[in-house]
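RECORD TYPE: inverse folding
INPUT: C-alpha cells
STRUCTURE:
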C-alpha cells in the first residue's frame, strides 16, 4: 500500500508539472511573436507577359505597384510596356492597359501603347496617371477607359508650358495631392515638376536642373536624379534622391527642401536618419503609423525609416537573390516599387520579375 501511495504522489507531481509547464508556454503567458516574412506573391521569376494566378503569371521588369482599389493593385510592367492589375486576395493578374508594343499611341485601354511605364498614381476622382518614362510624357487613363497624353512632347527636353508643349526627360515618380495637382520626379532634369490637372499647366516646382545636393528653398535646392515620390497626410512631398543616396522632404507649407534620411554617402548603415546610408534608393511609401519603407535598390534590401527617425533594415540580407523566408535572410534583386496595404508590404522586385510580399509579424 505504501508503495502504491508513493506511486500516486509521484504521478500527481508529474501531472502538476506538465499542467504548469503547458500554462506557462500557452495561455498563461503572451504568445510568441514572429517577425516579418517574405514570400513571392506573383510572378514566375522569368521574363514574360502571361496573365494568371500567383506564380503562374509573368512580368518583365515590373517597376511600380500601387493600390488601385480595395481589391486590386496596379502594376507598372515596365519591360512589357503594360499596366497590369493584380488581385489582392487571389493574386490573379490581368492586363489593364497597353497592347504590349512599345510606342506612344493614345486610344482605348488595350489598343494604346506605352514605352516603359515607370510609376502610377490615382487622383481624387479616380483617374489614373502614368509617368511613361521612355516616351518622356505623362499619360492619363480616364474612367471612361481612354488613354491620352496630358503632358510632354514625346521627346526628351526641359520646358515648362501647357500640356504637350511642355517637355520632360525621363519622368519617373508621380504623386497627386488633394488640390488637383500632380508632382513628377523629372529624373534626368534633376527637378520636381508640377502639373495642374485641370489646365495641364506644367511648371518647375523644386530644383534648379543642376545635379547637386543642396537643401533650402525649392527654387534653389538641388537634386541628383530624383526618382520615387510619396506624399504624407499633410501634403508634404518625399523624393528618393538616387545619386545623392538619400530621401528628401519638401515641406509644402514653407517651400523648403530638407534631407529626410541619409547622409548622402553610399552604403548600408543603420542608425539615425542623419547618419544612415543608402545605395541607390528608388521606391518609397508610408504606412498608417508614419513609418516610411524604402526600396534600397543597389543594396537589395527594404529599409524602414521609423516615425522617430531611426533607420533599420526591414527585409533582405543585402545579397541579390530570390529566396523567400524570414525577412533577415530573404533576398531581393533590384527592388523598386513598394506599397503598404493591410498587414503586408508589397514590392516590385524588378530583376526577379516578380511581386514579393512582406507579411508583418503579429
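DESIGNED SEQUENCE:
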Amino acid at each position: 500500500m505504501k508503495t502504491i501511495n508513493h506511486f500516486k504522489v509521484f504521478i500527481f507531481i508529474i501531472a502538476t508539472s506538465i499542467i504548469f509547464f503547458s500554462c506557462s508556454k500557452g495561455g498563461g503567458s503572451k504568445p510568441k511573436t514572429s517577425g516579418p516574412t517574405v514570400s513571392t506573391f506573383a510572378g514566375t521569376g522569368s521574363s514574360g507577359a502571361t496573365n494568371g494566378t500567383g506564380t503562374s503569371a509573368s512580368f518583365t521588369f515590373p517597376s511600380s505597384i500601387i493600390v488601385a482599389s480595395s481589391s486590386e493593385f496596379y502594376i507598372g510592367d515596365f519591360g512589357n510596356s503594360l499596366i497590369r492589375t493584380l488581385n489582392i486576395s487571389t493574386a490573379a493578374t490581368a492586363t489593364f492597359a497597353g497592347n504590349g508594343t512599345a510606342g506612344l499611341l493614345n486610344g482605348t485601354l488595350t489598343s494604346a501603347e506605352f514605352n516603359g511605364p515607370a510609376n502610377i498614381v490615382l487622383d481624387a476622382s479616380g483617374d489614373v496617371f502614368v509617368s511613361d518614362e521612355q516616351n518622356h510624357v505623362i499619360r492619363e487613363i480616364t474612367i471612361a477607359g481612354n488613354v491620352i497624353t496630358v503632358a510632354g512632347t514625346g521627346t526628351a527636353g526641359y520646358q515648362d508650358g501647357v500640356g504637350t508643349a511642355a517637355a520632360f526627360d525621363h519622368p519617373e515618380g508621380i504623386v497627386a495631392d488633394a488640390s488637383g495637382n500632380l508632382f513628377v520626379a523629372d529624373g534626368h532634369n534633376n527637378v520636381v515638376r508640377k502639373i495642374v490637372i485641370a489646365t495641364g499647366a506644367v511648371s518647375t516646382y523644386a530644383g534648379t536642373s543642376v545635379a547637386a545636393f543642396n537643401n533650402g528653398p525649392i527654387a534653389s535646392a538641388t537634386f541628383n536624379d530624383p526618382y520615387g515620390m510619396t506624399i504624407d497626410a499633410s501634403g508634404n512631398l518625399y523624393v528618393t534622391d538616387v545619386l545623392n543616396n538619400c530621401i528628401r522632404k519638401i515641406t509644402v507649407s514653407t517651400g523648403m527642401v530638407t534631407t529626410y534620411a541619409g547622409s548622402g554617402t553610399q552604403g548600408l548603415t543603420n542608425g539615425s536618419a542623419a547618419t544612415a546610408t543608402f545605395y541607390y534608393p528608388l521606391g518609397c511609401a508610408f504606412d498608417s503609423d508614419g513609418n516610411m519603407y524604402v526600396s534600397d535598390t543597389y543594396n537589395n534590401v527594404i529599409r524602414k525609416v521609423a516615425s522617430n527617425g531611426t533607420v533599420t533594415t526591414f527585409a533582405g540580407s543585402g545579397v541579390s537573390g530570390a529566396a523567400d523566408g524570414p525577412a533577415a535572410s530573404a533576398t531581393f534583386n533590384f527592388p523598386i516599387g513598394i506599397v503598404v496595404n493591410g498587414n503586408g508590404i508589397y514590392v516590385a522586385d524588378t530583376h526577379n520579375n516578380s511581386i514579393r510580399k512582406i507579411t508583418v509579424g503579429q
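NOTES: The longest helix spans residues 2-25.
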